[in-house]
Design brief:
Strand 5 and strand 6 form a beta hairpin. The N and C termini lie far apart (about 80 Å). The N terminus is likely disordered. The chain folds into three domains: about 80 residues, no CATH class; about 90 residues, no CATH class; about 100 residues, Chitinase A, domain 3 (Roll). It has ten helices and six strands.
């Protein structure tokens, strides 16, 4: 076994042992390249919960090796780009400045501007711009179930799911708690037909024709039974209902008002800073 493999395996062995502990010490160093260190905690964070020992070992080995390579390349780059160091640091600082500015502005817009958009303004925009809200996908209301084929009482569920009575829905809900892999009730809201069908091993080539001719879907593969009841539908090309389009309406109104909002915010910030003396301009010598 090569020296590299022995070192990596030993390091990862420490990781796997630590998975059994309740406390992780950040001071446990698994790799070091000059003054840069990689801690056990950093490696553990990238290993998905529930991973097997073999998978954890492979993930950790690959991560450690990549980290070491990146650190080595960085060191070489520092030595060979000494003449460009000032320019790069200036670029990094400008990017950091822009990133903080952008993140803060986005948060400010979300917190302040969204709250200022009245419901009446949203409805008016929706009604005056209906061409912008024509559906490019079908919408449905109903319920969806994914149940293991060996689940008890499956034949009863196949009777209940096609009914929208309160009694049937209560039975489905109770049954789903213990037996269903997935249970989604959406009689009270519009959802994308494509998103629902992504959970069912079935290809639909023409959404409008399918919705026009099918009120239920009942399909099984080698492991599961898929049940879909379509109570209502809206075909592709129809107007999206306001409750479905509202998030898009808000986003459009925010984008429409964003530039003016930011200009006013920056001008107020500027004037306030001058009044407080936080901003000082140099005077030209005469």
């Amino acid at each position: 076994m090569r020296k590299e493999s022995i070192i990596l395996t030993a390091a990862v062995g420490l990781i796997l042992c630590s998975c059994k502990r309740t406390q992780i010490l950040d001071t446990d160093v698994l790799a070091k390249v000059r003054d840069k260190t990689l801690s056990r905690a950093e490696v553990l964070r990238i290993i998905p919960k529930g991973s097997s020992s073999a998978d954890s070992l492979l993930i950790a080995e690959n991560f450690i090796k990549k980290w070491v390579k990146d650190a080595l390349v960085y060191e070489v780059a520092l030595r060979n780009l000494e003449d460009e160091k000032t320019e790069i640091e200036q670029f990094v600082e400008e990017y950091r400045h822009s990133l903080f500015r952008y993140r803060y502005q986005e948060r400010l817009i979300k917190e302040k501007l969204s709250a200022d958009i009245r419901v009446a303004d949203r409805i008016n925009y929706y009604e005056e711009n209906q061409k912008k809200f024509i559906l490019d996908k079908g919408l449905i209301k109903g319920l969806f179930l994914k149940i293991p084929l060996n689940a008890p009482g499956l034949s009863d569920v196949k009777t209940w799911y096609s009914s929208s009575s309160v009694e049937s829905l209560e039975k489905i809900e109770k049954y789903s708690v213990q037996n269903a892999i997935s249970y989604d009730y959406f009689y009270d809201r519009w959802v994308s037909f494509d998103e629902v069908m992504a959970n069912i091993p079935m290809q639909v080539t023409n959404t409008n024709n399918f919705l026009r001719n099918n009120k239920t879907v009942e399909l099984s593969d080698s492991s599961y039974c898929y049940l879909l009841n379509i109570k209502e539908y809206l075909p592709v090309g129809s107007l999206a209902p306001y409750e479905y389009a509202e998030p898009q309406v808000i986003e459009m109104l925010i984008n429409q008002r964003k530039m003016e909002f930011l200009r006013n915010f920056e001008e107020e910030l500027y004037q306030d800073a001058i009044k407080k003396g936080d901003v000082v301009f140099s005077k030209e010598k005469s």
